[in-house]
Amino acid sequence: MALVKTENIGRTYGKPGVGVVALAGVGIEVETGSFLALVGPSGSGKTTLLNLIGGLDRPDEGRIFVEGKEITKLSAKELADFRLNKVGFVFQEFNLIPVFSALENVEYVMLLKGVDKKVRRGRALSILEEMGLGDMAKRMPNELSGGQKQRVAVSRAIAAEPTLILADEPTANLDSKTGAALIDKMKELNEKKGMTFIFSTHDRMVVDKASRVINLKDGRVVE
Length: 223
Description:
Radius of gyration: 17 Å
Structural class: alpha/beta
Distance between the termini: 23 Å
Strand content: 15-25%
Number of helices: 7
CATH topology of the domain at 34-44 and 79-222: Rossmann fold
Number of strands: 11
C-alpha cells in the first residue's frame, strides 16, 4: 500500500470558471521511504500539492489518502490532529518561532503532543547535535544564519518522528554549499531511519539526490 495516494486532485483559486487552476486531475502514489522531488516551473502546482497532502488546504475535487486513510474526509480538528501526529513541515522561509530558542523551536511539536519535558528536551538536544547545532541550542532565530535556521526547521520537523516530511523549496534561501549539506543530512535521515520526504524544488542538486522525480506543468503531472 502506498504511503500517500492522490486521486484526480483538483484545486482552483478564485471563482469557478475565472479562477486560477493550480491543480487539475493529479494522481500520484508515494511509497514509504521515498525521497521524492516535485519539479516544474513556478505556478505549476508544486506547493499546492504539498499543502494538500499535508492537510494545510483542501482540494476542490478528488481524494487524498495517507496510510490508507482518506484525509479529504476529515474535519478541521481531525486534520489538525493529522498534521500534528503524521506530518513534519519544512518551509522555504523557515517559519521558526522568533521568541523561542533553537532548542525550544525543536521541542515545540513534542510539547503540543504532550511529550514529557525531560524526554522532549533530551530528544531535541540529541537531534540538534546530529545536525551540528549542539552549541547553538540556546540561540534565538535572529542569532542564526540562514543555513542554521533551516537545520533547526528540519530538526523540528523530524523531532516528533512523523510519518511524512514535506519540504517546500528547502534550499531556496541557502547558498549552494549550505544547501548541499542540508540535503545530504536529509538524505541520511531517509536512508538510515526510513523517513519519507516529499520536496517541491527548482534545485538541480535536490533533483539529483531524489529517488524519484515527478514533473508538474500547468497543474498536471507530465512525464
